[in-house]
Amino acid sequence: MEDKGIQDLVPFKGPIPITVRVIRKYSVQWNPRDKRRLFYLFTDSKGHAVEAKVDTRKKRLDSQVFLYRCYRVTGYVVDPPLGFCQVVDAPATIVIGDRTVFQPVDVSDIPKQYYNFIRNEDLKEKSEQIEFLIDYLCRIENCSTIMKRKDSNMLKMWVIDESEKVIEITLWENIAYTYANVVAPGKVVAVSSLKITKFQDSLQLESTSATTIDVDLAIEGYADNIKRLKDIPKKDTISFGFQTEDDIRSNITTLANVLSKDPASVHEQNHRFACIAAIKEIHGCRTWYSSRCPGPQCNDTVRYEDDHLMCKHCGYLDKPTYRYCVNATLYSDKSTLPVVFFDSAMTKILGIDCETLVVREGYTDPKVVPKPMLALIGKEKIFSFCMRQNDDTHIQQTLEVKGSAVTVANKLPLEDLPFTAPATPTGKIPAKHRRTEDELDGPLISNKKP
């Protein structure tokens, strides 16, 4: 007799044998005071899915249950749906206990993925149903690197669906690190188990511990949707706040106006601003780059320990990766503002990534500002930035000034600007000491202390 399916499950009734494939494994902590609970997501041959909550020893399951394999499952308990942050809209939740049996079976008609995609136009209605998480099929228009916000790490993506409407997705902590090297502008992605949130009356999406991301051809059964998304003309989407270049250009204000605002209100609302200004000074004494761990799920700073390069999470390293962290001061019409350029913002304005500037160009002293960076001083641009509660002002995007905008140089002669350029050498090592192309794959920093 053929086993019944997931849709036949009824809460509080005896379990029925079901044949399923294990397609996801994740842990959930709804309250900081609660322990993390392990969950699996099962699919059956009819394309239905159900969450399975683990109420037994994790070690027992680790040796019996494996992702993407199929099992005939018996001896479980059938509970009602979770009622909060459900990954799927199923009639019940399975509880795996000590008596639950997983018998491996060889079947090929059970899908390896499960998605129930929501359209952008339905997000508002779905946001009122707090019991469900949503899946989203979209194309990435732009994305950030991993950023630190207070005690959390995050990665932001700006995406469109077939409606061509832009929405922001935030990937948190482990999800951000897991997919940091997967997501990129232009890729079509299926993002699962997202939570709908609201910021300043705008809907946004955030990852949960159950979130997964599949890319392009790895998304089964949606070839036509993927093609339509790829055929949509690219939008000029701007990272970190403003969505388009037009948004920035139409919201330009002055530094004086920004500085006149109530700091408490500005910080509370996480305001974005755009101003025409020039870089007055780059503070080399604060270091202009940092050495980071290259681990795919780590972004920690590295240090020397026992004469070796060390990451406290990943152990000994052959070489680090390099990221911009440039402290500078903007100037416009006698107003100044201290700002920070992190990796993506400085890479865009400079046109050179940090790894290239340090490794290939030989600017290895983090406290001596490189010549290409000094060349930015005094050049007028449009800067968009966000002012945060810790008084850090992060530059998010830079644009060239167009049209008849009054320039900083016209307001005050360039030679009168109180620019600060270090009198020390540039920090660029002589060509005879520079590493060759063949040596670039090796460690830039010796494992021995200099």
UniProtKB/TrEMBL annotation:
Keyword DNA-binding: yes
Keyword annotations of the record: DNA-binding
GO molecular function, one term: DNA binding
Region (Disordered): 418-450
Domain Replication factor A C-terminal residue range list: 273-389
InterPro entries per the UniProt record, alphabetical: NA-bd_OB-fold (IPR012340), Rep_factor-A_C (IPR013955), REPA_OB_2 (IPR031657)
Pfam families from the UniProt entry: Rep_fac-A_C, REPA_OB_2
Protein name stated in the entry: Replication factor A C-terminal domain-containing protein
